[in-house]
């Protein structure tokens, strides 16, 4: 199953607590909590381009599975990391945050970010 497609955020759990824990300012958390972000994924073999648009903020990451790449985090920081693919899951550790993006079926993308005991879960549906 290919990750390629455009997905819109449908629901999320743990947003405010997680964003506070990673140091996002309260005003940005307030603005961001109700925005339905759009994720666009282009997959070509082991090469990926992921563009996440949240309001006016656009986060773009380009990486190849198993190779070190500069990944931009939610706070705008660039981190050298390796993205691994396990079946229909993409997994990467960015500093203390573990991100797992799973294609649960051809139309549903679930992204879970964990920091210690805190978890932030995003469920997105394919729109294109």
TrEMBL record:
Role summary: Binds free fatty acids and their coenzyme A derivatives, bilirubin, and some other small molecules in the cytoplasm. Involved in intracellular lipid transport.
Species per Swiss-Prot/TrEMBL record: Cirrhinus molitorella (mud carp)
GO CC annotations, alphabetized: cytoplasm
Transport found in the keyword field: yes
Key words, A-Z: Cytoplasm, Lipid-binding, Transport
SUPFAM superfamilies membership: Lipocalins (SSF50814)
Family: Belongs to the calycin superfamily. Fatty-acid binding protein (FABP) family.
UniProt comment concerning the protein's domains: Forms a beta-barrel structure that accommodates hydrophobic ligands in its interior.
Source species, domain of life: Eukaryota
Subcellular location: Cytoplasm
InterPro entries in the cross-refs: Calycin, Fatty_acid-bd, ILBP
Location, primary (coarse class): cytoplasm
Name this polypeptide is given: Fatty acid-binding protein, liver
One GO MF term: fatty acid binding
GO biological process, one term: fatty acid transport
Gene3D superfamilies: 2.40.128.20
UniProt key word Chaperone: no
């Amino acid at each position: 199953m290919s990750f390629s497609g455009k997905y819109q955020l449908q629901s999320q759990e743990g947003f405010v607590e997680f964003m506070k824990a990673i140091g996002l300012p309260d005003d940005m958390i307030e603005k961001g909590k109700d925005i339905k972000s759009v994720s666009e994924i282009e997959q070509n073999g082991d090469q990926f381009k992921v563009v996440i648009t949240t309001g006016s903020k656009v986060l773009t990451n380009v990486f190849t599975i198993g190779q070190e790449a500069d990944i931009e985090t939610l706070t705008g920081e660039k981190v050298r990391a390796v993205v691994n693919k396990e079946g229909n899951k993409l997994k990467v550790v960015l500093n203390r945050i573990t991100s797992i993006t799973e294609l649960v079926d051809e139309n549903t993308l679930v992204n879970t970010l964990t920091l210690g005991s805190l978890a932030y879960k995003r469920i997105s549906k394919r729109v294109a």
